[in-house]
Amino acid sequence: MSEDAKHETTIVIDGRVLPEGLDERMIRDVVHGFYAEIRNDALLGPLFNGAIAQHDWPPHLAKMCDFWSSLMLRTGRYDGRPLPPHLALPSLGEQHFRRWLGLFRATVNNLCPPEIAALFIERALRIAHSFRLALAYNRGENTLTVAPITADSL
Length: 154
Hints:
By secondary structure, the protein is mainly alpha-helical. Helix content is about 60%, strand content about 5%. The protein has one domain (about 5-154): Orthogonal Bundle (Globin-like), CATH 1.10.490. Residues about 1-5 have low confidence and may be disordered.
């Protein structure tokens, strides 16, 4: 076995080998492109810009790159807790998650090959559902009524 073969790691996500082409550069492009859209969005812009000060955007974007790198490339770079800041937003609701997912889908479809875009979308849908369940639970709402948002419903 060659030295290169010994050090080559196969990343498997949801039982599938990670498609070629997904790398740190693509993750950075997705994160920066997506948040540029969010910051200018009529619904999400005020929410995000109200929660994240102008000077805090560069560290936030770096943290989101670490988050997605950990999810998609298994780098382990992210060690934060993404839920608490979202729990602190009392107006955050399903319409925000739907818009977030719609913008995210448009971004990854624009920047990524279809197979990679699909992986990003699958992860984003799960994250949105998990956050929506946590929000409902923390607000004392019935979590059994929180149906997952599907890609087809966006």
